[in-house]
Amino acid sequence: MNGFMKLLRRSPWSARIGLIIVLINLTAGVMAPIICPYSETEKAGDIWVQPNAENILGTDHIGRDLFTRLVYGARNTISIAILATFIAFTVGSLMGFFAAVLGGWTDLILSRIIDVLMAFPTLILALMVLSVVGTGTVPLIAVISLIASTRVYRLSRAVAMDIEVMEFVEAARLRGENIWWLMRHEILPNALPPLVAEFGLRFCFVFLFIASLSFLGLGVQPPYADWGGMVRENAGAITFGIMTPLFPAAAIAVLTVGVNLIVDWFLHISSGLKD
Amino acid sequence: MKNILELTFKRLLLGFGTIIVISMLIFIGVEALPGDLAEAILGQDATPETVAAFRAELKLDLPPHVRYVEWLGNFLQGDLGNSLAGDRPIAEMIGWRFSNTFFLAAVSTVIAVPIALILGILAALYRNTAFDKTISIVTLSFISFPEFFIAYILIALFSVQFQFFPSIANIDDGMSLFEKLHSVLLPSLTLTMVVTAHMMRQTRASIINILSSEYIEMAKLKGLKRLRVIVVHAFPNSLSPVINVVALNLAYLVVGVVIVEVVFVYPGLGQLMVDSVAKRDIPVVQASGLIFAVTYVLLNLLADLLSIVTNPRQLNPR
Q1: Domain ranges, residue B236
Q2: In a designed cystine with B270, which of A270, B147, B157, B261 is the match (CB 3.0 to 4.6 A)?
Q3: CATH code for the domain in which residue B109 is found
Q4: How many CB pairs under 8 A join A and B?
């Protein structure tokens, strides 16, 4: 903790802004039921009311409080994104480590499968999978984890390949340690720094992807709040000069920039460059 | 030369292999549908005879590999089967929309490529100046923004505030080229912004990479003029990575175009695909997905081939 505080004191202003943005979003998401004046799906006034004292950001296309929706949107979108990123990392890095440690046929088959999946444009792959399995939160998380895990596989395999040829892994092998032990005690600790930075980048990708799918009406389903979906629902307002749909869209943009700022800082530290 | 031919041939083979595997996957994906397509469409009350007749009509009674070969054969001849909703031939629905999508992508490319290359080269030449840093921050934010955010900001500015362009980009065959351009300008500007950001950053990186290599240093030490160093020494070597960057980003347009078409209600292939996913009109999704995926693979293939062919190191082997 002490080391972290020290690191934080020396952090550049860009990383601090990023941290503040992420913390605000996380707090808002966790505390949603406490800070919101209304409930997630409650009608709070007329439709598309301009910002005022009762509805700080105005209301949406069926009169729900936009601020409340925005905070619940943070809760839903961010938790789905974190969950999907975690699944992608568990599956992707496990497969990548397996491929690197076992080599041979395991590596060949896994890598070719991943190659084919990566040959699809991501959004098109997602659209096709969703058309077959149907829309909903579970298919959404599954398809996004699948797509993100291919990129994680690539990175973790490459990193593990480098570690795998080191003497200490060879020594552990000769001691007769099994593959799980090798992966947990030798490969994982050494592969962690690049994987952590990748986690941030993947989170951004996953988060933007969820927003896009929800915007297309294929992600989080109504009546639950979700930033991408909110843009879609309120898009009609913009032609009347009502800026309502820009709030959730801006929220997406701000959070992505925030996470990117932190990742940049982290990459800078782990690359060992001074200033 | 032999080296290049061999590389090109290998890459072509790999590309077509990928396309075959992709088409198989798309076909198998539909096979894996829970339940039977016939029962899903006809409902539970259908008599076994109707189901059998329907299956025969859709040729669902044949074994999968026979149907795959037939499906692919028909696809190559332009027969994409019929849509489930409305029972219209898919080829008819897709043809016009495909040309619309192509038009949108082409306009975006024509705007984006020169801007990105010029900005990228300038940023590389004047790197670490205020100009470079400003461009870097601006492009980084464009990359972080979702496409629809940029799109709605453009709409709010140019079609609501100033009323220059329509917020709904509708085009039909009766319009003149100028009218078409006027109507697709906002969507293509959106795509341009996203693609330019990526393209410009990668161009900058590859030019810097080349400018910092030893033979450029050598050319400078020989006392050559700056212009000559860039045109004669740096340019031929930077051609290959830059062409690669351009082609890869055109492949990126394939994804971006779907969202932008939905925002501007543009009658393109992406819009059709999204609608069909929501309606679960699987044959249409299958056909448009295959077209998108093949375009993407072909553009990637083109990128690799061009970078093989334009690489001076490959052209003049020792």
Answers
A1: 97-315
A2: B261
A3: 1.10.3720.10
A4: 131
CA distance B286 to B289: 5
pLDDT tens digits, A54-72 = 777 777 777 788 888 888 8
Superfamily of domain A13-271: MetI-like (1.10.3720.10)
Which 8-state DSSP code applies to residue A238?
G
Residue B108 located in a structural domain: yes
ipTM: 0.82
Mean pLDDT of A144-150: 93
Residue of B nearest to A238 (CA): B156
- Give the nearest chain A residue to B298 (CA atoms): A119
In 3D space, the residue among A73, A49, A76, A12 whose CA is nearest the CA of residue A243 turns out to be A49
The CA distance from A209 to the nearest CA of chain B, in Å, is 9
Is B91 among the domain residues? no
Say yes or no: B140 and B248 in one domain: yes
pLDDT under 70 in chain B at which residues?
Answer: 1-2, 31-46, 54-55, 57-61, 85-86, 314-318
Residue reference for tokens 């007329």: A46
Same domain, B103 and B47: no
The answer to whether B277 contacts A130, with C-beta atoms less than 8 Å apart, is yes
pTM comes to 0.85
